[in-house]
């Protein structure tokens, strides 16, 4: 009943429903598009729909609004935030910029619009290495995720990369010990890991990549058993695409509570009441858009 009501409202409101890979399965299943945050922002931009319901967390809906200022961007749950994004204090960032005025500031997409506006280039987990290699400046400040930053630093040793100390609490909970224990239990277990995981987890992985890259790797390879070291929501998509393969998660810890806040009733009420509309200050939006456009230019 709820699903039919959502579909009906979506048509009435000329709306598009987007869901991040880490959302609840039932939310993923009613979405028009599912994927990583920046991909979904681009889908929103290219859509002819006037209203976008973004099932994710706040920084994702902000990015969509920055790229689509004339569209109504709705975030179904007002307090669906990102602890990693919240680890950048604006005043601290301003002071750090003053002390490192000769550096290029690169921020992960998992940041607020205000942080993006203070940085030179935005990156995603899939394009960070390529973009940082292409930046002319040798001195880079990377924020906020130290684990992704370390991973990039290992691949781009020619750059002086200064790391912020932020981290994703969900990825940090994934432990090397649990993975090794599962590898003893399950024969030929292939470990696919997101670079937001800690270094000791990355070191025992068979493949490291973004959520999309993990999905693509598991879909294109012919192994039977995969351990997915990232937020467990991606398992739903993996199973749909690969019904004859087995997917395991490292314990019960790889769940982002903020990503799981959005329920079908929230999507329904967001459409019904235009709840909750995202607004970004025009000056901040201009600065953030510049940093996003620099990413697109360097990623070509």
Distance between the termini: 45 Å
Low-confidence stretches: none
How many whole angstroms does the radius of gyration measure?
19 Å
Can you count the beta strands?
Answer: 12
Helix- and strand-based class?
Answer: alpha/beta
For the report, how would you describe the main beta sheet? 4 strands, parallel
Oligomer: single chain
The number of helical segments is: 15
Helix content: 40-55%
Provide mean pLDDT, rounded: 95
What general outline do the C-alpha atoms trace?
globular
Strand order of the largest sheet: 2-1-3-4
Q: What order do the helices and strands follow?
A: HEHEHEHEHEHEHEHEHHEHEHEHEHH
Strand portion, in percent?
Answer: 15-25%
Offer a few descriptive terms.
300 residues; 16% strand; 15 helices; single chain; four-stranded parallel β-sheet
């Amino acid at each position: 009943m709820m699903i039919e009501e959502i579909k009906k409202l979506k048509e009435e409101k000329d709306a598009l429903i987007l869901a991040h890979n880490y959302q609840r399965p039932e939310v993923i299943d009613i979405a028009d598009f599912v994927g990583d945050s920046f991909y979904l922002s681009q889908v929103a931009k290219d859509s002819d729909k006037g209203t976008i319901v973004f099932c994710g967390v706040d920084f994702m809906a902000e990015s969509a609004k920055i790229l689509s200022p004339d569209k109504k961007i709705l975030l179904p749950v007002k307090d669906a935030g990102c602890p990693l994004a919240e680890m950048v204090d604006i005043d601290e960032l301003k002071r750090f910029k003053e002390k490192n005025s000769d550096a290029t500031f690169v921020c992960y997409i998992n940041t607020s619009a205000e942080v993006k506006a203070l940085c030179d280039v935005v990156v995603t987990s899939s394009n960070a290495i390529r973009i940082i290699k292409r930046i002319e400046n040798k001195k880079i400040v990377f924020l906020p995720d130290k684990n992704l930053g370390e991973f990039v630093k290992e691949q781009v040793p020619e750059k002086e990369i200064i790391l912020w100390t932020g981290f994703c609490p969900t990825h940090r909970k994934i432990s090397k010990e649990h993975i090794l224990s599962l590898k003893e239990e399950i024969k030929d277990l292939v470990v696919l890991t997101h670079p937001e995981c800690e270094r000791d987890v990355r070191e025992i992985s068979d493949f490291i990549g973004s959520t999309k890259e993990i999905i693509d790797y598991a879909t294109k390879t012919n192994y039977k058993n995969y351990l997915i070291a990232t937020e467990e929501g991606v398992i739903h998509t993996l199973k749909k695409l690969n019904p004859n393969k087995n997917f395991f998660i490292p314990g019960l810890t790889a769940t982002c509570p903020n990503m799981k806040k959005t329920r079908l009733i929230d999507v329904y009420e967001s459409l019904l009441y235009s709840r909750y509309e995202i607004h970004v200050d025009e000056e901040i939006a201009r600065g953030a858009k510049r940093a996003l456009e620099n990413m697109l230019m360097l990623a070509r």
